[in-house]
Amino acid sequence: MNFILLITAAYLLGSIPFGQLIAKLHGIDLLKIGSGNIGATNLSRALGKKWAYFCFLLDVLKGLLPMLATDCFISSPPTTAELFLWLTVGVAAVLGHIFSIYMRFKGGKGVATSFGVALGLWPYYTIAVAVAFSVWLICVWIWRYISLASIAASVVFPLALTALIFLNPAWNFTNLWPLLIAAVLVPVMVIWRHMENIKRIRNGTESKVGETKKPHGQ
Q: Residue 161 CB: number of other CB atoms within 10 A?
């Protein structure tokens, strides 16, 4: 029953469209700006970096808080069943962001919320996502594409987790296999949500960080 409540709460929290709410408070419909996405990247085009950072933080918390709450019901070390339920709570938060019940099951791309989920699944995902985030920063610095950086980081994430599992004797693969399977599904989801961005990158029309004019975007 606790996990059912946590999964439901995670989805409802994940569904809150913070980017659109912030834009609406400023008299702007984010769905009609740039890419029409409700995430921080598109919000930056409408209101600037300050509000984009605030939105990013809120979207991260949508994934982080349910994971921290679920941790209160997890054994140490967690069983395979508990890891599966813990992941389900995180997936619910991400699905809420992508398919928001408050926006007729439309939403964002789920990268920031997924980042929050990974941070909250300590220590297994937390270390791997730190490595992936480093790759994200490097990609943004070199190529200045947020979308490309997100895709690259998502691919690195399961690779980093795999390396950590096999390098750490204290981490038993027999118990952690649900985490690895979920991690492998992350790049699939991210690439699927960024197909339009990939097309724009190939066509040379994808917006870069720091550009003044951004007719398209993430």
A: 26
